[in-house]
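INFO  loader      accepted 1 record
INFO  loader      residues=306
INFO  predictor   begin
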Amino acid sequence: MTHRKQERMFNQFKLHGTLLAALLLAGTACNKSTPVLDGNTNPAGDPAAIAPEAAATGQLVRTSLGGNGLVQQISYNGKKQPLVILQYAGNFLTTKDSVVYDAGGKLLKVLSYAPDFFTKGKFTLAGNTTFEWDNNGRISRKITRDQETGSLEEDNRYTYDATGKVATITTSTNPEISKLVTVATLTYENKNVKKIVHASGTDVLSHISVTGFDNHPSYITHPLLPYLLELTDYEAFGEQNAVETRNVQYVNLGSKRDSIVTVTKNAYQYNAASRPVKVAFTSTIYSTGNQKPVTSNGTAEYTYGK
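INFO  predictor   done
INFO  writer      dumping tokens
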């Protein structure tokens, strides 16, 4: 959820940074004075007290980045809507999110709980995210606040093009911490995100371009998942999977402006429904100056309900 995204404008391309933020938040939440909820007392909204329905056949129920990386586990209610989202760092539970809907099934908010590391089955309500909708039935704003202080952590505003695809995402955080406001502008090729430019005013911070798609449906199986999970925007809002991406991040070294380029190539395995179940990726980072490029390999896996 967005309350774990302390640097949303940058971590679209750095999931390991998001994972670190999750660990820090989960660890500090235990020391806050907010109420500690006992998993056995069935408090309203406590995900430990919810008995999720079995996931609908074909719905995404788990994403996993590498052997000990970010893991997200999704369960669904009787209406086949996301209900509880667990986030792990490897096998270490960091966050439980309880997704709340109104009587008509419209997404209202997400209550986020951090585990009490000293008492099994207890959770601290650490943050909440509320959603606003436009007149066309689309999410127009997502606001995340700290549960204890009520202070803003992140504010995301969405605009859409004439066909209903996300066109821009404007992100701001607590102005007492950072006054930086970024705008991500998405460009499409058919129904896939072809390019994303992140900018602050006239200053371009980064851009990512996608070279080729695999002509298979992506692992996003529910329209709310892009607003609930930790995802890169080109994965969240595109209908197919990227074969190759090129991410350019701009840095200022003194009076000189330079860039760090990351090229990632993906190879997919699919299930019988033609959705990806595993991707093996190779990333090569071309740093500033004349440093030798650094190449690394990894995998991500996706599991669906049966």
